[in-house]
Design a protein that fits this description.
Blueprint (H helix, E strand, L loop, with lengths): L22 E5 L2 E6 L2 H8 L1 H4 L5 E10 L2 E11 L3 E5 L6 H8 L7 E6 L2 E2 L4 H7 E4 L12 H11 L4 H14 L15 H14 L4 E5 L7 H13 L3 E5 L11 E6 L2 E7 H17 L9
Parallel strand pairs: 5-10, 5-11, 8-9, 9-10
Antiparallel strand pairs: 1-2, 3-4, 3-6, 6-7, 11-12
Helix pairs in contact: 5-6, 5-7, 6-7
Length: 291
């Protein structure tokens, strides 16, 4: 079952990642973090120390959509902080992202994120894992940027004032304070993508699935986001066609026809993947184009 716009599904709650108390004091325009749980501090000082052995676990997952098998026999246990997913168009990467976040219930098999059955236990799932969709129009539902960012925070149980302050803080972090009242309709596609990314990151989830997070973003914005993502504590599962954005990743999974084709150390898998894609390129990707 595919869902349409699912804002709450990009709402991995702070509580689930140990953020019991994060308050912002608004004082003369200055917003400062004044309290964090000990657990959160511990996580900030060394995410790997508190990381459970399996953050995401898929067992024998099978999925057909509209009568066509899309994912088959998928067994994956992810515990690394940085996991890339690559594969050709239509290989099943975005579907896998939706399965991981519980947005699509599988036909058979199990999907757990930090011990939560994400398709069944939706309440816990939205506290545990967030997703940045490939297409921002699948994510955005509010007319203004500030409202869009505040909505997820409200879903976490924050007061209107707190949500607004945190939304502003997120905009400030990305140098986009002037966007708060901006109508989303007036943004370019790349700018909308940035809004979605800011909305997910503002929620500080334990696991974030990024489906082509840099689509449509210009080079400086991409680079500053890349640096920002590199510093984040949560587990990142990053789907991309731009293999350079997986620089420094620990593990890469190459999906083909809904199956794991290759899975291992990032450098090795990417070398093989690039070599295979270059071979495909010399065969003109099957388009039969004229010389
Ligand atoms: N709702 C659906 N109903 C039927 N088929 C679907 C549906 N959603 C996706 N598919 C099919 O599943 C396959 C995998 O799609 P998916 O979007 O997961 O691929 P992808 O690897 O993310 O591709 P891309 O790199 O182009 O984004 C495709 O053949 C697609 O046509």
């Amino acid at each position: 079952m595919l869902h349409g716009k699912q804002p709450s599904l990009c709402i991995p709650m702070l509580a689930a990642c140990g953020w019991k108390s994060l308050r912002l004091r608004v004082n003369g325009g200055q917003r400062r973090e004044v309290a964090k749980s000990n657990k959160a501090k511990k996580r900030m000082s060394g995410a790997s120390q508190t990381r459970p052995s399996a953050v995401v676990r898929l067992s024998n997952v099978e999925l057909a959509l509209a009568g066509t098998r899309i994912l088959s026999g998928l067994d994956l246990t992810l515990s690394e902080r940085r996991v890339g997913i690559v594969g050709r168009n239509g290989s099943g990467k975005s579907t896998l992202a939706r399965v991981m976040t519980g947005l699509i219930a599988v036909d058979s098999g199990e999907v757990e994120v930090m011990g939560v059955d994400v398709a069944r236990d939706r309440k816990q799932a939205i506290r545990t894992i967030g997703i940045l969709f490939q297409n921002p129009d699948h994510q955005i539902i509010f007319p203004t940027v500030g409202e869009e960012l505040a909505f997820g925070l409200r879903q976490q149980g924050r007061s209107k004032k707190e949500a607004r302050a945190l939304a502003r803080a997120a905009l400030e972090r990305f140098g986009r304070s002037e966007w708060e009242e901006r109508s989303i309709e007036t943004l370019s596609q790349g700018q909308k993508h940035l809004v979605c990314l800011m909305a997910v990151l503002a929620l500080e989830p334990a696991v974030i699935v990024l489906d082509e997070p840099f689509t449509g973003l210009d080079i400086p914005t991409t680079r500053s986001l890349q640096r920002y993502l590199d510093r984040l504590a949560p587990t990142l599962v990053h789907i991309t066609h731009d293999v350079s954005s997986l620089d420094g990743y620990e593990r890469v999974i190459w999906i083909e026809a809904g199956k794991v084709h290759r899975d291992g150390a990032a450098g090795e898998v990417l070398d093989e993947y690039l070599a295979a894609m270059t071979r495909e390129d010399t065969a003109d990707a099957g388009f039969g184009l004229p010389d």
